[in-house]
């Protein structure tokens, strides 16, 4: 039995999968298997995987059913007690599993473990994620996941490892959610389980790869996701603040996509006392000004300057 099972959901990532998979195989910590679930790719993704010869790789193919269910299937096929996830366009540095092993050794009874990560904003610009938590140098328990995640989340898909049994007991990824399945899972972990954070940077999340957040049906799905936790946020002020910030971000996406229906539904759910000055200002701006700001933001990114409305 390997110590880790690494799960990679694969769908039309021919330009990225070789680099991602090689970053997994190059780990300092060697005791793992790699389970790749091809979710009905129509490009050369599978051919790229088959070019890489390593006995630890197990490749499965299925008809397309989405990333959430694909990850659930991968977890069920896993032989290890601890599951590590990586998306097919993200990247692990060689210390990733080594640092997770360190965290698990220190906190063997806990459920979820996350390493610090970077955000790849462009081909030449990587920034460190910023967390709302006291500076520490060793793995430690996060007292309040939602408070710690108000700038960048403590945990994102490619930065985490979890205990397989606890994951299954939580219900795994909710495949009925069209967009934000990872966010939904992390909220449930934040409510029900302890999370261990290792402040050593071991991976990056590639935000330069296009996604489908601008689609109105994805925005509708996310609004419903946030609403599903309303009863919990009544008694949890940190969760309430966290959800309001996420609703704010979604409202901006809706405005840019001219999704007036979801935008108007979100506005009454955003208590503006939870927003900073920049956020309040952006929320009032017309779409044309926000689009112009986005263009300027992209120019800044190309020149190595990162500006966030969350700080």
Automatic annotation (TrEMBL):
> Where do the Glycosyltransferase 2-like domain residues begin and end?
5-104
What keywords does the record list, in alphabetical order?
A: Transferase
Matching entries from Pfam families are given as: Glycos_transf_2
* Secretion signal span: none
Listed InterPro entries: Glyco_trans_2-like, Glycosyltransf_2, Nucleotide-diphossugar_trans
GO function terms (MF aspect)? transferase activity
Q: What's this protein's name? A: Glycosyltransferase
Q: Which organism is it from?
A: Winogradskyella endarachnes
């Amino acid at each position: 039995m390997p110590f880790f099972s690494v799960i990679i959901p694969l769908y039309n990532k021919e330009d990225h999968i070789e680099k991602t998979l090689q970053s997994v195989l190059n780990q300092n910590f060697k005791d793992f298997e790699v389970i790749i679930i091809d979710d009905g790719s129509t490009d050369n993704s599978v051919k790229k995987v088959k070019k890489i010869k390593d006995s630890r790789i197990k490749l499965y193919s299925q008809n397309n059913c989405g990333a959430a269910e694909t990850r659930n299937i991968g977890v069920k096929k896993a032989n290890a007690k601890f599951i590590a996830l990586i998306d097919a366009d993200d990247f692990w540095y060689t210390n990733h599993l080594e640092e997770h092993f360190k965290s698990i050794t220190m906190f063997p009874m806990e459920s979820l473990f996350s390493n610090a990560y970077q955000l790849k904003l462009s081909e030449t610009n990587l920034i460190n994620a910023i967390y709302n938590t006291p500076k520490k140098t060793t793995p430690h328990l996060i007292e309040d996941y939602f408070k710690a995640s108000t700038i960048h989340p403590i945990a994102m898909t490619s930065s985490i490892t979890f205990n397989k049994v606890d994951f299954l007991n939580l219900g795994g990824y909710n495949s009925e959610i069209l967009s934000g399945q990872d966010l939904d899972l992390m909220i449930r972990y934040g409510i029900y389980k302890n999370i261990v954070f290792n402040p050593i940077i071991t991976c990056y999340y590639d935000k330069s790869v296009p996604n489908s957040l601008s689609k109105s049906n994805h925005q509708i799905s996310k609004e419903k996701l946030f609403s599903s936790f309303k009863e919990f946020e009544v008694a949890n002020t940190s969760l309430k603040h966290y959800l309001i910030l996420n609703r704010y971000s979604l409202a901006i996406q809706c405005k840019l996509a001219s999704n007036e229906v979801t935008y108007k539904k979100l506005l009454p759910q955003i208590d503006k006392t939870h927003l900073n000055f920049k956020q309040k200002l952006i929320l009032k701006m017309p779409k044309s000004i926000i689009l112009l700001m986005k263009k300027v933001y992209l120019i800044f990114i190309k020149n190595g300057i990162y500006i966030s409305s969350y700080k």
